[in-house]
Amino acid sequence: MAAIEFTAHRQIETLYAAHHGWLSGWLRRRLGNTADAADLAQDAFVRLLTRPVPLASAPQARQYLRTMANGMCIDLWRRREVEQAWLDALAAHPEAVEPSAEDRAIVIETLCRVSAMLERLPEKVASAFVLSQLHGLRYREIAERLQVSERMVKKYMARAMLHCVLLEAGSGS
Amino acid sequence: MPSTSAAADHAALEQAAWWYATLLDAGDDADQQARWQQWLQEPGHARAWAQVEAVSRQFEPLRGEHQRKAADAGLKAARRVSSSRRRVLSGLASLATLGVIGWQYPRVRHEWLARTADYRTGTGEIHATGLADGSRIWLAPGSALDVDYSAALRRLRLHEGEIHVQTAADAQRDFVIDTAVARLRALGTRFNVRLHERGLQLAVLEGAVEVSAAGSVSVVEAGQRLRVDAAGIGPTQLADPDADAWIRGILMADQMSLAELVAELSRYRPGHLGVAPEIADLPVAGVFPLRDPDAALAMLERSLPVRVRRPLPWWTTLEALH
Questions:
Q1: pLDDT by residue (tens digit) across A86-142?
Q2: What band does B26 get if pLDDT is binned at 50, 70 and 90?
Q3: Within this chain, do residues B200 and B305 fall inside the same structural domain, yes or no?
Q4: Of A107, B3, B101, B131, whose CB has the highest number of CB atoms within 10 Å?
């Protein structure tokens, strides 16, 4: 069977008709919540619309949708967890100014982006990078905190930065 | 050729990252600055450097004076999520045999599910409800429960808090409660399940309940209780016959410390409720009204050498009476 290129709305419609109900059900079971499941199912098809992929058969389409939806669930959980941790920490520091809705959205977005970038790095490498980027610590101070040499901190920094730029270059943005 | 240019790009990025790590912590070393400037002039290097700068700029919104600690907490939370996700993925094979893969998603999953559950109760709220099959459930304060009945199975999912369950008979469909640490299957019964930070406590009042956790199974009979945590199913003990008193709005204290009683009362009362350490271990006995926790505090004042102090509307502490 020839690969189907989902480049037109009509083809997306076919795909939508064939798999949307199934995907919503799958997400609902996974998330335990109908509204979020509906949102994510919608997002999944929007993504397909904006970044078409060739899917040769119905099982392959479902496999693809499931993988994509799985990633979206994890992103959603991460986002909510990150937001909650951030809000809790803010609440613990009453001297901090209540952020506006926009600031809040920007910070959460940034936290998700940055944490996704650092996710695969070893603990100490990621810590060194955050201590430098976020807190502006000198290598000497970072070295003390992490119980490593200053030379090692510099290596960590180069490694973390390379990892991030490669990720950014690879994501095509 | 694309592969060559990709390799060149990679080398340029590698060097850019190295320069970044070098310059970030360097003093005013003119020599080094000059060498970096020279490097920057070579083909492709300016572009690689721009990419390094772009990554560093991404941290900008997080750098505010009061932002950093909160941002730190957010990043740590994200790291917890992703590392537990990796653990889950690597452990999938063994978990599949339990049939509870979704439930092994750590705290994140059920904390978040708890916020969107079918039934949830806030502080001080006891909610009683009947289910489609005639079973009855009571939710204690701070509980979250999903009800998921199908043609084959009556399934509840307890995300947090405590429920009391009285099941209706149905020969066709099992009645199960899934929690993060265990599956409970009712064998014609009335029982109480309370989730803790690390596990759960089950007390059976009538019938029996089958507990499955971490690959083992245990049956708890009426009059028994046990705990389940990450390590597995604990030993069976004698149940408190008043384990269901809370559904009638009563707390029966018997061999309870004041600190334990205060912890219970605070589930029924908004705001902070604390107890001074020197009186925390005082033994308490009695019957206390959960729906009127302030009356319960007044009772404590009458029966124990303690006084209630309310320095702020949302702040109450029990202190020793001097």
A1: 888 888 776 666 677 777 777 888 888 888 888 888 989 999 999 988 887 889 999
A2: confident
A3: no
A4: A107
Contact A168 B51 (CB under 8 A): yes
The enclosing domain of B145 has a CATH number of 2.60.120.1440
CA distance B220 to chain A (A): 29
Among B98-102, B206-210, B284-288, the least confident range? B98-102
By CB neighbour count within 10 A (0-12 exposed, 13-18 middle, 19+ buried), where does B69 fall? middle
Q: Does residue B256 form part of some domain?
A: yes
DSSP H or E segment with residue B159:
strand B153-160
* pTM value surpassing 0.95: no
Which residues fall within 8 angstroms of residue A159, CB to CB, at 6 or more apart?
A121, A125, B17
Cβ–Cβ contact A7 with B under 8 A: no
* pLDDT band of B297, cuts 50, 70, 90: very high
The secondary element (H helix, E strand) that includes residue B156 is strand B153-160
Asked whether the beta carbons of residue A158 and residue B79 sit closer than 8 angstroms, the reply is no
Domain match, B234 and B122 both:
yes
Q: And the tokens for A19? A: 């798999």
Domain boundaries, given as residue ranges, for chain A: 4-81, 84-170
> Is A96 in contact with B18 (Cβ distance < 8 A)?
no
Cβ contact, residue pair B117, A32, below 8 Å: yes
- Judge: B75–A130 Cβ closer than 8 Å, yes or no: yes
Q: Which residues contact B34 (CB under 8 A, 6 or more apart)?
A: none
* ipTM of predicted assembly, 2 dp: 0.74
Q: What residues are paired with A54 via a beta bridge? A: A5
Domain's final residue, options B194, B209, B238: B238
List chain B residues with CB under 8 Å of A136: 63
> Phi first, then psi: what are they for B129, rounded to 5°?
-150, 155
The residue among B15, B20, B25 with the most chain A CBs within 10 A of its CB, best to mutate, is B25
Are the beta carbons of A149 and A143 closer than 8 angstroms? yes
Per-residue pLDDT, B123: 82
CB B213 within 8 A of CB B183: yes
Range of the domain at B147: 113-238
Q: Which fold has domain A4-81?
A: Rna Polymerase Sigma Factor; Chain: A (1.10.1740)
Tell me if chain B has a CB within 8 Å of the CB of A17.
Answer: no
Pick the CATH number of A84-170 from 1.10.1060.10, 1.10.260.40, 1.10.10.10, 1.10.3720.10: 1.10.10.10
pLDDT digits (tens, 9 = 90+) for B165-198: 999 999 899 999 999 889 999 998 899 999 987 7
Nearest neighbour of B58 by CB, restricted to A29, A113, A162: A113
A27-66: per-residue pLDDT in tens?
988 888 888 888 888 878 777 776 667 777 778 888 888 8
Cβ A110–B62 below 8 Å, yes or no?
A: yes
Chain B touched by A102 (CB under 8 Å): no
